[in-house]
Amino acid sequence: MSTESNGGSNGGIELEYGLDDKPPLGKSILLGLQHVAVMIVPATAVAYVVGNNVGLGGPDLAFIVQMVLLFSGLATVVQAYTVGPVGARLPIVMGTSFTFVGAASTIGADFGLAAVFGAILVTGFAVEGFIGWQFKRIKPFFPPLVTGLVVVIIGLYLIPVGMDYAAGGVGADDYGAAHNVGLAALVLFVAVGLNLFARGTTRVLSILVALGVGYLVALLAGIVDFSAIGDVGWFAVPSPTRFGLEFEPIAIVMFAFLFLVSSMETVGDMSGVTAAEGRNPTDREFRGGLFTDGLLSSIGSLFAAFPVTSFSQNVGIVNFTGVMSRHVVGICGVFLAILGLSPKVGAAVTTIPSAVFGGAVLLMAGMVAASGVRLIVTHTELDRRNMVIVAVSLGLGLGVTTTPEALAGLPSAAETFFSEPVIMAALSALVLNTIVPGEQSPLFDVPPAETPPESSAAGPSDD
């Protein structure tokens, strides 16, 4: 056990267990289960939301949830222990990212899930493998201003989705009914209350506890449908290409850009983990972590799993508990993989009423947006240049979400691409931050204390 402090000059924290320490098996299992409990809700929520948006039925939706758990587990084990150059040897828990929800829903509805999984197969390792290989050259184009705006728009985009679920789900006969709104409000109230006023494990597991309370109330009210569980077995070996594979050019372009964005999330999470030791990740750790993202996402697409990426919630647990052991996270991955081999588990998740999930999705979406705001404010000076970039990116991102018909005159491929809010916001932020001189521009590095020559004689600033 590592009890020495990593604080002081290197800025780390006092670790209870270091990177290569092995806590006692019983304690390791409990710590691993805590990681599972924190990530299983948002990870399966992605599959649940996309599956419902494209109209999947019970068995098909349960299968996708099952595959999400299986490949989240496999990717987590690879991150902890590595396979050749793949894996970071860091305590990184992997799961499906909200970054891909909008594109997967849009492409799935317009072209079918075969186009979604075909695009993931092609772009997963091609994009993130290349980024891992050329990481030093690409990183400057994604400073906190750009990545923060991406995170903000992901959260804001998901809020209407959460509201629809809170009302009972789009197309539900009881959409907007009082019992649906009440269930969602109960889940939200319990989660917020525990997160703000509880301590220790109860606070960390606040969303899971809130879902349990909401599910119990729904069960007592008789609105839980268990039919999906009876339709599947206890154990099943995954079957590849259940939904087929198709290769639509527009889908490939969209997912290529989103994998570029997702890679920056993983970079941030790896940095968050190693910060516990008061250091930044090594080039080998960055490369191995990004290789895992891309390769496991591509392989997972063959089995109907959505892209896997690092989970920030679990980075928070590492820093909160001081347990940095990669062996604990490896145990978490094993548990996830075992759960992913049981169709009963996936089917059980689908029995959660939409309204119960809605309360949790609303909170998670809001927290995603809030974390993006924190990333921007903490690392970016909000001067005129950066405020304009924020305004344009959020304006365009939210604009295509709230008024998609405004793009109806574009060619169909362009309409599909530019109507995706994450792509619109990220592309706007990336281009403007690159071409406009400023501290975070990779091309025109202007320190914040300096004034661009053309404005030095222009009189007082109108900021």
TrEMBL record:
Keyword field: Cell membrane, Membrane, Transmembrane, Transmembrane helix, Transport
Biased composition (Low complexity): 452-463
Keyword Transport set for record: yes
Transmembrane segments: 29-51, 63-83, 90-107, 113-133, 145-163, 175-197, 204-223, 243-261, 328-349, 355-377
InterPro entries: NCS2, UacT-like, Xan_ur_permease
Membrane topology: Multi-pass membrane protein
Record's subcellular location: Cell membrane
Segments of this protein annotated with the region Disordered: 442-463
Family, similarity comment: Belongs to the nucleobase:cation symporter-2 (NCS2) (TC 2.A.40) family.
PANTHER family to which the protein is assigned, alphabetical: PURINE PERMEASE C1399.01C-RELATED, URIC ACID TRANSPORTER UACT
Name of the protein described by the UniProt record: Purine permease
